[in-house]
User: Fold these one by one.
Assistant:
Number 1:
Amino acid sequence: MRDDRGSIILEFTGFLPILLVVGLAVIQLGLVGYSFSQAGSGARAAARAESLEPGTGAGAADAAMSDWYDPAVSVTGGDLVEATVTVEIPALIPFVGLGDAARTVTMPADED
């Protein structure tokens, strides 16, 4: 019978990088989803605020979103108010760009 002491730690050490990569991928997917969710929340808030009081959309979008993000807000008025919010998706791995998350919401303008 041979001595098997220490074989488990060697197997775990070989499998550890795979576990870390899978864990980072899951967290990164969560960040992508969170970014799109935050862009949608900001766009809804901007469109609603702009439809009620013109000129307040950008501030409402910024207030409705997490402080992690620096949103780019574009609001157009008229009978229908359209707000587009774009945020950069944060990356866990440095120097890897994942692009932007953008959402657009259209609401009717308030008729006061």
Number 2:
Amino acid sequence: MARAGTYAKGVARREEILTKALEVVAQSGPSAAYVKDIADAVGLTPAGLLHYFDSKDELFAEILRRRNEVDVENYWPRASEAEHLESLRRGYLDIIEHNATVPGVVQLYMRVAADSPSPDHPAHAFFREHGEELRAALMRGIVRLQAEGELDPGTDPEMLARVLQAVADGLQMQWMLEPDVDMAAGVDTLFSLLVPARRAGDQRS
């Protein structure tokens, strides 16, 4: 029983660390020392912090996983259950606009993403799953809108979902280099191309 209790406490402590870590990273600057900042926030040394994770890379992967859970809960129902193009557009833009308020998270995402293609990287599974879940949510909305006649039924839903993901990811990189870039406006431009010109103004209002 003692071993089970110790394990449960370790899991709870790890969850506490991830919750605080997401807050710390969200407001960190481009050159933030993430591990030290997070350790300070939870009252641990960097070595003590990493006791709860296999490595620094796993810590970062789990922070991004926690961030994704929060975003899914707050933003994705509107996009994945969209019955109108405006719902899909607004749901996707909401999360992109939120990203602009948490530069540290975007920076961490881009840094880890660059290393994640390696199959043995701790974040590899997360980025595969994240991409699949994101596209699945977008595809559900796209298919429903095609059935309602709001989107061209001849467009491949999966490819359109990939394009929406790629545009958002690419704009994030531009935004990291040029903070004046309006990521949401860039994605909104793509949405405006998905509907006839006579309706584009209504969708942006």
